[in-house]
Queue: 2 jobs
Job 1
Amino acid sequence: MSKVLDSALVWFRRDLRLHDNAALFHALKAARQVHCVFVFDRDILDALPRRDRRVVFIHQSLQALGQALVLAGGSLRVVYGQARQEVVRLAAQLDVQAVFANHDDEPQALARDAAVQQRLAAKDIAWHSSKDHVVFERSEVLTQSGTPYNVFTPYKNAWLKKLDSFYLRPYPVATYLDALAPGFAENAAIPSLASMGFEDMDLATLGLEGGEAKAQALLWDFLERIDDYKRTRNFPAVKGPSYLSVHLRFGTVSIRQLAKLAFDRAQVGSEGAEVWLSELIWRDFYHQVMHHYPHVVGSSFKSGYDRIQWEQGPQAEVLFQAWCEGRTGYPLVDAAMAQINQTGYMHNRLRMVAASFLVKDLGIDWRWGERYFAEKLNDFDLAANNGGWQWVSSSGCDAQPYFRIFNPIVQSEKFDPQGKFIRRYLPQLSGLPDKDIYAPWLAKPIALAVAGVNLGVNYPRPVVQHEEARLRTLGRYAAAGQKTVV
């Protein structure tokens, strides 16, 4: 793009930050005047519950982004409507020559962007999009034969081999901020949550405040304990994770900044940083899987697993509801579900435990759980959520073997050894001794009585017996053509 444009429009989506933003950088470098917009897209919002933490998080992040743009000499226009119409309308109204955005490879987003690009072209307005949400995307990391990877470890090795300073270098947005347009002709106030039909919520109590500054504060807090990440990350009662996933999801922090910090620390011997970098690579892996194999949205990556006969009918609905509401009778699973229902966050180890219980103890189709997590998780990301559920159900790329089934009691004893996490979210069990809190139905009557636990009244009995459920699962997978391993 050699010719300097008179004006351009940057469309913010899942990249709600000023610094190290690819689309913003390219627009500022290409045009004399750059306008900025975010659209609260009704095609997405209309399907959401009226109490949705993610919408509040976005709203807070937009306030912070708007303030940052004003301080830099620009402004942010925020509108409520259908993005495929509003972006084109604004581009025409502002008489820009091009619209810049960052890639979003989710199927719904690709369809939206294609419609916008077509409508812009009809008005002789160019469309430019950039990689920003991952380190390596789409076909940047392929096998030697030019095919996409579907096993993680070889992908990770190729990812690390390809990595160099170029891919981790931040975009120098600050150098070109003079090109920001000072304001819009229209009122640039952010629509209120109430005007869009959403309730405001106090996110501070959840440590979930939006904005680039909040993301940086979490990052620097994590860097003080990143060296212990390998040891602490599996224990839900311990402050082990980075808690940055929601900021990554909405782009209030740059993936390049995180990957560089992790890589640099790993290079000097930090095992914790090395493991965390691996988690970031998993994220890239699932995004490239969705790009190359879009059928995973709604279907198993391994088509043979779509032959599995999942539980159906009223009984399946009852079991699913018990799982959703944390009434399975397995304390670690129930505490995990209480965490997601109350906060919108679930510890990564518990995501695996809870998902495995739904699929392999209750025999419920993984897509039911995937949809529930999509509704509840603050950090919901289609590629990562789909990849995680297919990993648990053994139907996806590099998935857990179907015959490895999490035992929720063993998981409790191993990763919540003193029952601290269970007690936090299931206070009715807090009086039980550590040895009984993982499986209250096995406790002696006197221990239950002393703790005030009345099974079937203030805490449910198990909805299934794990060992029996395990055998049913092996049979279910065998019937679908998978060789039984006992």
Job 2
Amino acid sequence: MGGDSLVRARLGGTADTMMSKVPGPSLVKPADPRKRDDLIDRVRQRLFAVVDPKMLANRNDPNTRKELNRMITEVVNQEGQGVHAENRLRLAAEILMDLIGYGPIQPLLEDPDVTEVMVNRWDRVYYEKNGKIRRAENISFRDDEHVKLVIQKIVSPIGRRIDEASPLVDARLPDGSRVNAVVNLSLDGACITIRKFSRPITAEKLLEYESLDRPTLDFLAACVKGKLNVLISGGTGSGKTALLNALSAFVPGDERIVTIEDAAELHLQQEHVVRLEARPPNIEGQGEIPIRALVKNALRMRPDRIVVGEVRGAEALDMLQAMNTGHDGSLTTLHANNPRDALSRLETMVLMAGEELPHRAIREQIAAAIDLIVHVSRMRDGSRKVVSVCDVGTAEQDGSIAVDELIALRMMESGVVWERTGRAPRFVEKLAWQGVELPGGSGL
């Protein structure tokens, strides 16, 4: 293993906001990239000889980082004679971010307003900020191998691998940000997608962002307190998990909650919570614990509520059975274009369980289990809003499931308005059994 690889193998964490004070990397493109690469290799070899591994282990200390920055700058100045001073400064910043961070994308990861980072190829980096996707014009990697090195740095500390045999990987950064990486499949080279971890959005914040209005929030809060089974649907990046996290705050604190996620994102405020996370197979292809196994196990953990971060496969059947066997008040999300599509997707996922159930039996289970569908959408301006709240009825004679809209988002000249349809929800009696009344009475 070369010096550069050994240094990387000893590193693990992320850089903090101190890094934002350092000029961004890869801004200078020398006439001969090979000379630049040779300079970087020489600097790294010398750093490997002088940097104490204990210093790297203490990389989160600001004083340690200042000392690393001083050492790197000194070596770059010595090895980079004849290189413009500004270029040497930027080169030192790039090497520092490689050592204690994730290379050129580190400033984006540290920007609190950036919510997603996308590396399409080594010289095409994009990010989402304030709901809009922009290209990072001044940020790029050195080459495709540089991207792969950063991917390896992300996945190695958590025991994942990515190579010719396993070209896809899902991982998590230490701060909880979700990472998906692809190598040897994209025609443009390795690519990375990072959904940054953000602090849980409270219900009051949703009001502040105009994701819904106060009457709609009060209605949903009553539904959660009344132990209705709620399904939150929407597209990618529409705010499903944020809404789920906000609504979970209305679960009474004396109830035992079990959360089940593919990658832990939920942060419930209650104390009596058990958090379970699925586990992918190891390098030998063994040890996988899928969501479905966790849902089955959760039933043996005496839960008052089961919260599934997202259903996307055969676990849908076990979740429905849990809802239909006394575990009321369950919450989950799924990808769908509208509330009715959400039920169709749920039916398809149940079929993935391979139980060969008749379609009518599946629909009857869905109708009996799901009380409410809350559909969220990402608007053209980047904002996320609750666009529809639907009551789920019984399975009809023709096999369809009755879905009635209770609240709908309307676009008016004066702005957005959440209209009440005036229909009385079917679940009023169920709420009454829990001692919960809907705000404003049974009608909307």
